[in-house]
Amino acid sequence: KYGYINTKGKYVINPQFDDALSFSNGMASVESGEKWGYINTKGKYIVNPQFEFAASFSDGLAYVKSGEKWGYINTKGEYIINPQFDSASPFSNGMASAESGDKHGYIDKKGNLVINYLYVDSTSFYDDGYAIVGTTEKKYVIIDKKGKEIGAKYDGIAWVDNEFCAKQDCYEIIYSGEYCDEHDTTTSVPYCDAYGCLNKAYAGDYCLDHNHLE
C-alpha cells in the first residue's frame, strides 16, 4: 500500500492506497479499488474514487479518464471539459495537448480546439511558449501557440535544460530558418549528448547546432 510521509520520514497519511501520485495544489490523486480520486493533505477524500485514472492538477485542472475517454475536472471534481478525447495531457500555459482519432491537437481551458488535430505526437507548451510536435512525415518541428512552425523539421527534438535540442543525420546550423556559416557560430552553441542545442536568441530567432550522427 501507499501512504505519505513528511520531511522527517514520519507518516502523515498511513499506507492505504493501491497507488498514489505527488501532491499538487494541496491535493493528491490516489487509487483505491481500481478507481482514482483525490485526497487533501489530511488524507480525506475531496473527490471520491470514480475515475479509471486521475492525473495531478496543473494550471488548476486535471485530466481524468472516464470509461474510454478523457476529460478535465476542477479541484471540486466538476467537469470543466467533458470526457471526449482518446488521450490527454496536463495544461501548461493555458493549453493542453489532446488526441482524437490518432491525431494530436491543442485545446484551451474551455475545451475549444485552438490547434487542429494534425500531429502524430506532441508535447505540452513549455514556459517560452513553444511545443514540439511529430508530423506525419515522421519528423519533428517546433510550433508556437498559433500552430505556426518554427524552423525546419528534424529527426528528433528534445527539451533539455531549458533549451531545444535537435537530432539530424547531418551537421548544420540554422538561424531564423536560414542556413548560415557554421564556422561563425559553432563555439557559441552548447551540445546536448547526441543532440545539438537550439537556443532562443531574440524576437523569435533561433540558432541550431548539432553533431554528426549516423
3D structure, described in words:
2% of the residues lie in helices and 55% in strands. The longest helix has 4 residues, at 182-185. Strands 19, 20, 21, 22, 23, 24 and 25 form a seven-stranded antiparallel sheet that branches. The protein is built from one helix and 25 strands. β8 and β9 (69-73) form a beta hairpin. It has a domain at 129-214. The protein has one helix at residues 182-185, and strands at residues 2-5, 11-17, 19-24, 27-32, 35-39, 45-51, 53-54, 62-66, 69-73, 79-85, 87-88, 95-100, 103-108, 113-119, 121-122, 131-134, 140-143, 149-154, 156-160, 163-167, 173-175, 178-179, 191-192, 195-200, 206-209. By secondary structure, it is mainly beta. The relative contact order is 0.08. The model is unreliable at 170-214 (pLDDT under 50).
